[in-house]
Amino acid sequence: MSRVKLLPLNEAIAAHVRDGASVALEGFTHLIPFAAGHEIIRLKVRNLHLIRMTPDLIYDQLIGMGCASRLTFSWGGNPGVGSLHRVRDAVERQWPQPLALTEFTHAELALGYQAGASGMSCGLMPHHADTDLERVPGANRRTVRCPFTDRPLTAIPAITPDVTILHAQQIDAEGNVLMRGIVGAAKEAAMAARCVLVTVEERVERLRADMNAVVLPSWLISAASVVPGGAYPSYAQGYYARDNRFYLAWDEIARDREAFTAWMQRHVLGVRDHAAQLRALGVAA
Amino acid sequence: MSDPAYTRDEIMTVTAARQLRDGAVCFVGIGLPSAACNLARMTHAPELVLIYESGTVGTRPTVLPLSIGDGELAETATCIVPLPEIFGHYLQRGRVDVGFLGAAQIDRYGNLNSTVIGDYSHPTVRLPGAGGAPEIATHARAVLVIMKQTPRSFVPRLDFRTSCGYLSGRGARAASGAPGAGPRAVITDFGVLRPNRETEELELTALYPGVSADSVRAATGWPLTVAGHIEALPEPTPADLAALRELEARTRAAHTRPIRITLRT
After folding, report:
1. pLDDT-based confidence at residue A130 (cuts at 50, 70, 90)
2. Which chain B positions have a beta carbon within 8 Å of A114's beta carbon?
3. Alpha-carbon distances, residue A41 vs A38, A55, A64, A66, A269 (angstroms)
4. Which of A144, A171, B46, B207 is buried most deeply by CB count within 10 Å?
5. Which residues of B are designated catalytic?
6. What is the pTM (predicted TM-score) of this model?
7. Could you tell me which chain A residue has the CA closest to the CA of B76?
């Protein structure tokens, strides 16, 4: 018997993602939990503090649909394509609402997760040379001195999301979850969180994982949902590739408020679940 | 003079690729740097070790990735490490020879902006932000920058300093304690700029065939110093051009391939 509650995704999100929560949907380019993000949009959760190294299209969508009031991030573009137009519209013109930013570098944000995951109040790293990052409003880093060498170090506060949501390849009969391929800071974000939700490509009897594979034991996970294609248009190594064509096409869709709203209405709000969306997009039969 | 058999973008990528020696360990930014690094690996530098910030080490993609984390990078990598390790064990520990970066703005000391145009709190253009660039610029033994040169991108004053070059020049970077040596070259669509040994200000040191120093000055937002000796950069060889064009054609085909997902239940 599984120790993890396998729930329909809408029930898992409704039970754990509340208005005003800090939520990290992680996955570095790979295994981005798009289906979970779309469920948050359908459930009209509001005032979220979204945390993610690379906001990617999923946060462009959540922010454009008015789910978030704060964003903590380290690189906010459409990778290889250009801007996240909805993020830009929120920052530059406060549409559909103002968005407060806390920004880090990749190494800093990963370190913040690591500190949170390890019960530390902060993480330390070598000081990077003088930049304006330290001087922006909302900057949350301090320079301290190494007690042994007196060298300057950058201290990053622990990042501890209320909820971390991941997409992974497999869950086994006991509810253990396996991720393989590019894992980014997904494990650190999960271990830092108070509550971990997972979507997976499939349920298997046994994970045939290598000894040092990234496996989240069942007892760390609050709820899991089987959502095939749940990372699309990101990807799941071994299941389907990244839809680069969609990432290129998103630039045009997201550039315009009306085109964006119409797309979201049709493909997210107007469908029952992720499978219906994938069929409507012609990605799944 | 007849039109050359190559574009400015092509000679820029080929020239950038030639800056990389075989066997070097290179931390690769997405976009123009990724094209140059992979062209180098496919031509004169087959043992070039490419690291992307997604944690893929020693990757050998056959097509250019659109993102820094495409499956192609994972499938062809020597190993894939978690994000804290790529920045900690590889970059911060001093195992990267060359960091290859792009940016929206650069100043005369090679400092880079990828954060905002305009005021931070009320930006004209909100750019993607730092990503891995500040640490790459700090810790890589040397940095190469590839950027198209216009007065809007080569500016007298950055709107925001995201990543350090030589700070205010004349040894300021070394005094700051940054372990890496800083930008070794800036490759543009006109030629190459390198830092002056004393002032650390970027100077025009090399030009593509048929490009004048005056046209580079006109494309630079500060009064550009031209080095005493200007190197005449060679044209791309037919083999370089063929390799680059094939790479780009394969990439275009790969990025437009439809995705099919099987919905298991």
Report:
1. confident
2. 84
3. 5, 15, 10, 9, 7
4. A171
5. 53
6. 0.97
7. A181
